[in-house]
Specification:
154 residues, mainly beta, Hypothetical Protein Pfu-838710-001, ten-stranded antiparallel beta sheet, 3 helices
Length: 154
């Protein structure tokens, strides 16, 4: 069970270089239910997420080889999501996963915090630099971002 909340932030913390950084690339083969392939640094996964709720849902990760990932990412629909993820301790026993997006979502920055229980998630007091809880807003779900269409001027 994955239980997480997602937030917009007011500003990126200083000195990000002091935190663990992961480079992530992911694409979606299906968004209902979610079937995603992901490169996370040098690890590769196929992920299945059941519908559940935005706050809590089942998630299964199956390891892939690099070759399988490279084959499957070409079959994904829509936008390929690329981002740098920094793991930042919040001082209250949780890790903030700060995502700085690249590519078509350059400039988008989101923070996610995972929890052990729904009750813990609902009672969480976010840091002052979190400005809006967007957990329930589908516009900030990576699976929906992958489907976003952009108007291109010719």
């Amino acid at each position: 069970m994955e239980i997480e909340r997602k937030f917009l932030i007011s500003s990126v913390p200083e000195h990000l270089e002091q935190y663990k950084k992961r480079v992530i690339e992911q694409g979606y083969m299906c968004t209902g239910p979610v079937v995603r392939v992901r490169r996370d640094n040098d690890e590769y996964y196929l992920t299945y997420k059941n519908k559940g709720t935005a706050l809590a849902h089942e998630e299964y990760n199956l390891p892939l080889t690099k070759e399988a990932y490279e084959h499957l990412i070409k079959k994904c629909d829509g936008n390929i999501i690329t981002k740098d993820r920094y793991n930042i301790p919040d001082g209250m026993g949780h890790i903030i996963e700060l995502d700085l997006f690249h590519g078509v979502f350059e400039g988008t920055t989101l923070a996610e915090v995972e929890f052990d229980t729904v009750e813990e998630a609902e009672s969480y007091t976010p840091p002052s630099w979190f400005i809006k809880d967007v957990t329930e807003d589908p516009n900030y779900h990576n699976s929906q971002m992958s489907r976003k269409k952009f108007d291109h001027e010719d």
